[in-house]
Amino acid sequence: MTSTIPRFLLPRGSKPLSPQYRSLFAQSRVQALRQTPICKYASTKTPKPRVLEKPDKFNPPSHPARLNKSPPRQFPGPPLSGAQKEAQMKKKYPHTMPPKDSFMNWFITNRSIHVWITLSTLSSLAIYTFTTNFQRTSPFAHLLPPANTFLSHPLNFLSQYIEVYKLHTAHISAETAERRRKKVDDVSKRSAYRKAHGLDKEQGFGGWMARGEGEESGTGMKVDGAVGSEIGGPTAAETGNSMSPVSSDSGAGDAVYRNLGGEKKPLKKWLGIW
């Protein structure tokens, strides 16, 4: 047995469509959905670029970023006891300095021990170099005591070594004095030769070097007014040598020049040199 619902109990609304109208309405909705695009495409026109206004001058920000100067938070944990701190100070950590109150810490941080080591090393090297050079260059090296006697008789070894060194210094001094004497003798002989041949007045650069007291130039020996009688021999005037281009016939006057034809002409010097 079927029961019908009264009309006043049904909801008020549009009039219900018939099945034919319903199918037509559904087809029209589908066609409308197909025609409408799913996504909206962008415009093909290129937008204008944004141009920022150029400022007249540099305007720094009024409130720049500030650094955080507060110290970072630390979480040390519970405080250590006195025994733990003591053990921590005496513990050797890798790649760190040795702990305090240890021998290695004293050796590394002590300045006096390093100064002593440096000076002793340099002194030993200097002594070794001096003794080796002395033994190779000294002509009295054969008089040196043997090295093995230094430990058994150190005083005798040092005294003999000092005596040999004194002989070496005396020999060097004598050689230096002889070399200096030869140079002085050579200079005096050259000066006497120049005076004997009248070349002392024609000095060039450096003629002032070989000049004695009361002499115009040179350090030649004067004997009875003559120069070089003992060192350079007789003068050109005494021997009558006419081959010398400079003659002293005029005595104390200017020197006279003799040309190839035998004529005597006075010397002319420009600026005192030639």
Task: Provide structural commentary.
The protein is mostly helical and 274 residues long. It has helices spanning 19-35, 82-90, 103-109, 111-137, 149-152, 154-196, 236-239; strands spanning 222-223, 226-227, 246-247, 256-258, 264-266. The radius of gyration is 60 Å and the shape is elongated. The protein starts with 18 loop residues before the first helix and ends in an 8-residue tail after the last strand. The strands form 2 sheets. It has a 3-stranded antiparallel β-sheet with strand order 3-4-5, with no helix packed on it. A two-stranded antiparallel sheet has the order 1-2. A hairpin with a 5-residue loop joins strand 4 (256-258) and strand 5 (264-266). The protein has 7 helices and 5 strands.
Order of helices and strands: HHHHHHEEHEEE
Helix content: 40-55%
The protein's oligomeric status is single chain
Report strand order across the widest sheet.
Answer: 3-4-5
**What percentage of the residues does DSSP assign to strands (E)?**
under 5%
- Work out the helix count: 7
> Which runs of at least 5 residues are low in confidence (pLDDT < 50)?
216-253
Distance between the termini: 168 Å
**Radius of gyration over alpha carbons?**
60 Å
Q: How can the largest sheet be summarized?
A: 3 strands, antiparallel
Mean pLDDT: 74
The number of strands is 5
Describe the global form. elongated
Q: Which structural class do the helices and strands define?
A: mainly alpha
